[in-house]
Structures are given as structure tokens and as C-alpha cells.
Amino acid sequence: MSGHPTPTPPRELTEAEVDELVHAAFACERDIKAAIAEITADTWTLAERLHAFHELRGWSLLGYETLNEFLAQSEIAMSRSSFFRLVQAWRFRPREESRAGATFPD
Q: Residue 75 and residue 94: Cα distance in Å, rounded?
């Protein structure tokens, strides 16, 4: 004997418990999809603003020697490749009505 108690086998869930779990799973799925939609919209907004900043060469107007110096700020902390990926995504964005389901290039 190992001295460990024998685990009790799990009991079958009632139909009401299963229904409650299914409803909770649907609520989670809905919230996940809503969060993804928000992230997508926010990412398009960021892409638009980075594109405008790039067109202005905003980093030099703000006194930064290089784009890298601007991107290295702790509030931004973005790589050059991420910056240019988003700038390009905005430059070649889909039309407004189809953007809601559009994804960003990897």
C-alpha cells in the first residue's frame, strides 16, 4: 500500500450543469471575438498613425536623431521591422468596407 488515498471517480454532470458550462463557453467565445475585433481596429488605427508619422519624418521633427531612437522609447518599444510592417499595412490597406475582417501581414 502506498499510503495515498484512492481518488474518488468524477461524477456525471447533470444536464443543467452541462448547459451552464456550454453557456459559459459561448460567453467566453463571444468575448474573445469582441476582443480580437477591438485589437484589429486598434491595430489599424496604430498603422494609420505610424504611416502619418513616417510621412512627416516625425522622429526628426521631434528632435530624435534616428527612427530607432524614437522607437526605443519605453512607451513605444517597437522594432523597425514592426514599424515598417504597420506602415506598409496602412499604405496597402484594403478598402474601408472590407477592413473589418482584414488581417495584418506576418
A: 29
Domain ranges of the chain: 40-106
Find the length of the chain.
106
3-state secondary structure (DSSP) of residue 73:
coil
Per-residue pLDDT tens over the stretch 26-81: 999 999 999 999 999 999 999 999 999 999 999 999 999 999 999 999 999 999 99
Residue for grid cell 473589418: 100
- Distance of alpha carbon 11 from alpha carbon 13, whole angstroms: 6
List helix spans (H) across the chain. 15-56, 58-61, 67-71, 80-91, 96-99
- DSSP assignment letter at 74: T
104 burial (CB, 10 Å; 0-12 / 13-18 / 19+) is middle
Asked if residues 56 and 95 have their Cβ atoms less than 8 Å apart, the reply is: no
Cell of 102: 482584414
